Amino acid sequence: MVKAVVGANWGDEGKGKITDMLAREANIIVRFQGGANAGHTIINNYGKFALHTLPSGVFYNHTTSIIGNGVALDIPVLFKEVRSIVDRGVPEPRILVSDRAQIVMSYHKNFDAYEEERLGGKSFGSTKSGIAPFYSDKYAKVGFQVSELFDDELLKEKTVRVAQQKNVLLEHLYHKPLINPEDLYKELKEYKEMIEPFVCDTSLFLYNAVKEGKNILLEGQLGSLKDPDHGIYPMVTSSSTLAGYGAVGSGIPPYEIRQIITVCKAYSSAVGAGAFVSEIFGEEADKLRNRGGDGGEFGATTGRPRRMGWFDCVASKYGCRLQGTTDVAFTVLDVLGYLEEIPVCVGYEIDGEVTTEFPPTYLLEKAKPVLEVLPGWKCDISGIREYEKLPENCRGYIEFIEEKIGYPITMVSNGPGRDDIIYRKK
Ligand code: GDP
């Protein structure tokens, strides 16, 4: 049985926690897109961890972690991450890396930083992990696939060709130091040595696992609204964040994905630039930011403060629809316990008209939130394990949102830990 855990919004919904929790029952956890540009924060019996590249199932010794072909593979980051968890007592994880994944090169990170610098005030707020230059190269067919590390002749020829092309930009657009093909070749040889023991045909491995009835989790990064096709283009990420891409980015048939668990946070947060209709500011935002997540809403990769907002039914309904949601995991609800009243964005007003359908970016920029205010529950709900034991106003909030987004909320997360979860019978 294959399940996907994906985000409905702008990322940071708590997918890491939900994946870590569901991984208890899983055999294999697969990352299928993105790279080390976003982080998952996970709190379990080993402590608190920020993962960027490893799937969130690495904390169990019964799981296999797969870096799928769709991932932007940053080999030094992967190794650093493995070391950092093993050093803290987590059993040595079993990791497989797709021979068809492509490699984030050091120049991708440089180009990312140079381009942000060039754009100045119009920058994307990139984490400078090289993701956009990486995926551009992949689709321009000048990237390095892991399998190519094993073809020395090809590497020698390709490093010259790639350096030639990159150096035009480095010299004339960015005015930065040029790339020496021999350094590139050396970099790739080092990567080969590091990664070789883990490389295999992961799609074949997964194909056999599906046939054997293994439980497989596909773990998405970021959320629907950062998808390059369906998100807030151009303020998006460079690989598809949708469950549908889980099939492509891991190499399994799309019809094998039976359950799509879309993680939706009980309020909104976003990083980077781009329209954010239900955004709040000043003291109101600070209060939520400092209480949010676990230890505040600050980026797991960058540490920068996240932008905050009220729950957005328009964006979340759209986000759930694009994922093909079968179940919503509604997270970080405990954080809202301090509020007397909780505004919820139920529509967008654009040029005097109210809509509940998420528009393309040029209209989104003009949208004003239509808010409905719900009563708060003014207490701490952490520790509660049964839905009926939640305060009435809290259930009211969940059911109001469920009705507005139109997808069943089957899990409610009321704390960062593995056991902080309420399963709701539907
Ligand atoms: P991801 O990228 O979607 O995995 O999300 P992040 O890890 O960036 O952000 C989620 C944050 O919320 C992390 O710090 C989690 O530990 C925390 N978290 C997840 N679920 C809950 C919850 O139900 N309650 C609280 N208080 N924190 C949570």
Protein topology:
Elements: E1 2-7, H1 15-22, E2 28-31, E3 40-44, E4 47-51, E5 64-67, E6 72-73, H2 75-86, E7 94-98, E8 102-103, H3 106-119, H4 131-139, H5 152-174, H6 181-195, E9 199-200, H7 202-211, E10 216-219, H8 243-250, E11 257-265, E12 268-270, E13 279-280, H9 282-291, E14 307-309, E15 311-312, H10 313-323, E16 327-331, E17 341-350, E18 353-355, H11 361-364, E19 368-375, H12 392-405, E20 409-413, E21 421-423
Parallel strand pairs: 1-10, 1-11, 2-5, 2-10, 5-7, 6-8, 7-9, 11-16, 15-17, 16-20
Antiparallel strand pairs: 3-4, 12-14, 13-14, 17-18, 17-19, 20-21
This protein binds guanosine-5'-diphosphate.
Number of strands: 21
Q: Identify the quaternary structure here.
A: single chain
Judged by helices, strands and strand pairing, the structural class is alpha/beta
Bound molecules: guanosine-5'-diphosphate
Sheet with most strands: 10 strands, mixed
